[in-house]
Amino acid sequence: MGMPPPHSVAPTRWTAEMVRALPEDGRRHEVVDGELLVTPSPSRDHQRVVRDLVNVLHAYTNAEGIGEAMISPSDVELDPHGLVQPDVFVEGLVAGRPAGGWNAGAPLLLVVEILSPSTARADRTTKRRRYQRAGIPEYWIVDIDARTVERWRPSDDRPEVISEQLVWHPDGAGRPLTIELGELFSRIHGETL
Question: Fewest C-beta in 10 Å: which of 44, 88, 138, 179?
Fold first, then answer.
């Protein structure tokens, strides 16, 4: 009796390269500290939050000249065992210009994940710890149902839970960005358009 073919045995420690080699199946594949995370396509409300946040962040980062707001799918490689696809993120500039490609040396200024039942554990624990270790200045977890944003910074043991005004003032920006969460969540829940 022979050994099973190599492709039939799941690796014990995934790498970014291994994830990139997976066939396209319509799901999001990420690896954090060698652990493979697979999630289904997001909900409509999830995508509404992504759209609204990236629009606000794009206008702000352009006006302040500090970086570029992006959405996934994107392969953000934190290290050989860390490839993530944040829902929304802001990359800083490289030599005063937007990065020329993924993983081209642009620092992450902000990472945002929108909670869903299938991602809550990973967003709040696995990914959060990894983003903190990477020194990402701010990590936001958006809870659509609770109408809150959890703000994490690298040294935080607990999040700041925000339900009214989310204020972000990254290094290099002349003025802060203020997001009225009541208005954001009202739009997402179809209470105002």
Answer: 44
The total number of structural domains in the chain stands at: 1
Among 96, 90, 64, smallest CA distance to 174 is for: 64
| Residues 135 and 168 sit within 8 Å (Cβ to Cβ) | no
Full-prediction pTM beyond 0.70? yes
The answer as to whether 140 is a domain residue is yes
Q: How far apart (Å, rounded) are the C-alpha atoms in residues 30 and 84?
A: 5
- 117: CATH: 3.90.1570.10
5 within a domain of the structure (yes/no):
no
DSSP calls for 118-135: TTHHIIIIIHHHHHHHTT
Distance CA 112, CA 141 (A): 6
Closest-CA residue to 105 (of 67, 71, 139, 56): 67
pLDDT tens digits for range 155-171:
999 999 999 999 999 99
What is the C-alpha separation between 81 and 35, in angstroms, rounded? 8
Could you list the residue range(s) of the whole structural domain that residue 107 is in? 43-74+85-188
